[in-house]
Design brief:
By secondary structure, this protein is α/β, with parallel strands linked by helices. The protein is 43% helix and 16% strand. It contains 14 helices and ten strands. The protein is globular. Bound molecules: NADP nicotinamide-adenine-dinucleotide phosphate.
Length: 326
């Protein structure tokens, strides 16, 4: 397993993170616990959750955080694991933005109780609210530190123009507030429109340039394009959601190259797809979302493969084929 560290954060974050959106809903508790066991046994440390995962109403506990909390407690794994959670998601009922100190305290209080943690390793603002200045978000971080022990903060679904505003504010304040970002990124190109959700951010040329220039750690969600590459390689039919979000002429060509490279490496397609993220030329974590232990095992089969930039370019465009297959 490959790891990275965040600025002034002593935890080792495994570069493959376990995503837990469906813990307690479509993934029942027993299976979720088994996935957490297997993930930790394979050297995985980064668990990506959010208050809103499995939360039925604003203010109620989220099932994902509760299950993770029970697992951390019964296995005494607080020191070993890097707990990543998110809060201040827009209201589940009104869909209104909830950016305020009072709501942040309410969400963090809930997450601390449900995770049973003394300290959170990384907490993300789950969504941006572009009607609010960046300063308003970052001053919340300054204020919250006297209430809750959170080691690092991040922003999820913020685009490069807003990330630039963060950099400007941090320069003025002479202090880094944001240690990581989380957006949708896989080898399959997609867009918020294809996800039918304009509040998310998908990787594109502007974002890619930003991360390459700034070297700010990136956590990539839907890093396996919902299983598109694995299912393509295995000849398994794709469901409507995957087809809408990820099937295009260009992505099919990419899937053919993944299949070919995985045959050369003698590894599953998932290992190539995840390594495409974890071998990026900036610090990066690939968040996986297995729906069963078989998928978890498949995605964790070869976590140490590091692709060269030539191999990554070949996967993207087909260029350099003669250097990849010698
Ligand atoms: N910050 C945010 O706003 C945000 C948004 C979304 C997700 N996330 C985080 O990212 C995590 C992962 O996202 P995701 O679930 O979209 O990731 P993903 O791994 O790209 O997609 C998960 C789906 O892919 C299929 N799959 C997974 N592993 C497979 C394998 N080895 N072989 C074949 N198919 C496989 C499964 O589909 P089937 O069940 O159909 O087989 C599974 O439900 C979430 O759990 C959450 O923690 C964050």
């Amino acid at each position: 397993m490959k790891y990275l560290t965040l600025k002034e954060n002593g935890k080792q974050f495994s570069k493959i993170a376990l995503g837990t959106t469906y813990f307690g809903t479509t993934i029942e508790e027993k299976s979720a616990m088994r996935m957490l066991d297997e993930f930790a046994d394979s050297g995985g440390t980064t668990i990506d959750t959010a208050l809103v995962y499995g939360q039925e109403e604003d203010g109620l506990p989220g099932r994902s955080e509760m299950i993770i909390g029970r697992w951390l407690k019964s296995n005494n794994m607080y020191k070993e694991m890097a707990i990543v959670t998110k809060g201040l998601h827009p209201s589940l009922t009104t869909h209104q933005s909830r950016i305020s100190l009072e709501q942040m305290k309410r969400d963090l209080d809930r997450s601390f109780i449900d995770l049973g943690a003394d300290n959170l390793d990384l907490w993300f603002f789950h969504r941006d609210d572009r009607s609010k200045p960046v300063k308003e978000f970052l001053s919340l971080i300054d204020q919250i530190s006297s209430y809750f022990p959170v080691t690092s903060f991040g922003v999820s679904n913020w685009d490069s123009s807003r990330l630039n505003e963060i950099c400007e504010y941090e320069t003025q304040q002479n202090r880094v507030h944001i240690d990581a970002s989380e957006i949708q990124w896989s080898l399959a190109e997609s867009s918020p429109a294809l996800h039918e959700d304009e509040s998310i951010v998908c990787m594109d040329d502007d974002q890619l340039q930003w991360y390459s220039e700034h070297q700010r750690p990136l956590f990539a969600y839907s890093s396996q394009a919902k299983g598109f590459f694995s299912k393509f390689a295995e000849g398994i039919a794709l469901n409507a959601k995957v087809t809408k979000r990820f099937v295009s002429e260009n992505n099919i060509k990419r899937a053919e190259r993944v299949k070919r490279l995985s045959e050369t490496y003698q590894c599953p397609a998932s290992s190539i797809v995840l390594s495409y993220i974890t071998s990026a030329p900036f610090p990066s974590v690939a968040i996986i979302g297995p729906s069963c232990t078989h998928q978890l095992e498949d995605s964790l089969k070869d976590p140490d493969i590091t692709l060269t930039q030539t191999e990554r370019t070949y996967l993207e465009s087909g260029e350099g084929e003669e250097h990849v297959f010698v």
